[in-house]
From TrEMBL:
Source species: Phycisphaera mikurensis (strain NBRC 102666 / KCTC 22515 / FYK2301M01)
Primary gene name: ubiE
UniProt protein name: Demethylmenaquinone methyltransferase
Gene Ontology MF terms in the entry: demethylmenaquinone methyltransferase activity
Residues reported in the UniProt entry to bind S-adenosyl-L-methionine: T78, D104, D130, A131
Domain of life: Bacteria
Length: 260
């Protein structure tokens, strides 16, 4: 980890308002993920009580990819969803290229993803790239997935438009994202955990100084929510939208079809 990645990225001042409204959000998010890359998987498993893998299996099911198709996993991080997708597909798509392509704009995540994929018979391929400018041609895949990443891009609407660009007509978009639960009692308990206990334990475990685990609950509380993400699907030509709430309403999995 370089010296810049060790510095505070999200503090009291930068989290006092809406972090999604900051003009420097993209730079801060990249630095934050570079800071926590090494402990990212351990913290995910521990603080999601292992349920994060189940959520990804639901996303794989909703993507409904079949042999010969290609899926692009955006904001792939350390590769968990890309690997889960790759395990359901042959190594090559119908055109001979990789069946799964993982893209992330935090370079420190990609070697971790590649290392985890190396033992899989159907390994995903990985590339550095921004969700707003994917390094891919038009209409190159049948599905796009993004797990807990739409909330972190600088412009979620522009990102969904970019996903539509790389999808073939009839392609599927699957968005897995945290959400504020509707039930008041669950919302209270979730806030106590995500804003109180989790930042302390996650920061101690990772040695993080970037403020990543203070940013996480704030970014969820100020994001679009279930209806807002559904509206993005409609705005960019995705029909048949459906969503599945999980984990007492704290996680949503959205799916829709381009041009349907």
């Amino acid at each position: 980890m370089d010296a810049a990645a060790k510095k505070k990225v999200w503090g009291r001042d930068t989290l006092a308002g809406d972090p999604h409204a900051r003009g420097d959000k993209a730079r801060r998010v990249r630095a934050m993920f570079a800071s926590i890359a090494g402990s990212y998987d351990l913290n995910n498993r521990l603080h999601a009580f292992g349920m994060d893998q189940r959520w990804r299996r639901v996303a794989v099911g909703m993507a409904a990819v079949t042999p010969g198709e290609r899926v692009v996993d955006v904001a792939c991080g350390t590769g968990d969803l890309a690997i889960a997708l790759a395990r359901t597909l042959p190594a090559a798509a119908a055109d001979g290229g990789p069946s799964v392509i993982g893209v992330d704009f935090t370079f420190a995540m990609l070697p971790l993803a590649e290392g985890k994929s190396s033992g899989d018979a159907a390994a995903a391929a990985y590339a550095a790239g921004d969700a707003l400018r994917l390094p891919l041609p038009d209409a190159c895949c049948e599905a796009v997935t993004i797990a807990f990443g739409l909330r972190n891009v600088a412009d979620p609407s522009a990102a969904v438009a970019e996903f539509a660009r790389v999808l073939k007509p009839g392609g599927r978009l699957v968005v897995l994202e945290f959400v504020e639960p509707r039930n008041p009692l669950i919302r209270w308990g979730n806030a106590a955990y995500t804003r109180g206990l989790m930042p302390l334990t996650a920061t101690a475990l990772s040695g993080d100084r970037s403020g990543a685990y203070r940013y996480l609950p704030k970014s969820v509380a100020t994001f679009l929510g279930t209806a807002g993400v559904a509206a993005l699907y409609e705005r960019h030509g995705f029909g048949g939208h459906r969503s599945r709430a999980m984990n007492l309403g704290t996680v949503d999995c959205h799916a829709g079809t381009l041009g349907r």
